[in-house]
Amino acid sequence: MSVSNLYLGRLPEDPAREYSLAGESVASFALRCPVSAAPAGVGRPGEAEVVVAVQATGALAEQVLGQLRAGDRVLVAGALAASPPDPDRLGASDVRVHAQHVGLDLDTGGWHRDPVPVAVGETASTGHPEYHW
Q1: What was the pLDDT predicted at 50?
Q2: Measured between alpha carbons, how far is 30 from 34 in angstroms, rounded to an integer?
Q3: Where do runs of H (alpha helix) occur along the chain?
Q4: Residue 76 and residue 6 in contact, taking contact as beta carbons nearer than 8 Å
Q5: pLDDT at site 40
Q6: Where do the structural domains in the chain lie, given as residue ranges?
Q7: Which residues belong to the signal peptide in this entry (predicted)?
Q8: What Å distances lie between residue 26 and 15, 23, 48, 86, 97, CA to CA?
């Protein structure tokens, strides 16, 4: 049994497609969360945001890959999971959130995709500096 937590944050980059060893589709993405919404013990004193690694599998992964883009503010319900220890990293494992539900945060007074910060002269990964609806 795992306990689900709710994570609220912004995607700094588009989700990436990966595949499990069984060939199942996996969507991996980072979620920049305010420290107040981060898992207990994550983040350093004084930090305003932390990055949480998230993975969705199967049909949810396909929806994430088809719908979410850099700058989206999303809610993720999921449980913390750890990857198997990596012998090349002296047994270290990576902690991530295994998403069970993912949705856009519509509580913005008229939904819009946040601008993605980029260097001067560069274009955001979305191809556009900002979206508004």
Answers
A1: 80
A2: 13
A3: 58-67
A4: yes
A5: 59
A6: 5-104
A7: none
A8: 10, 9, 29, 20, 13
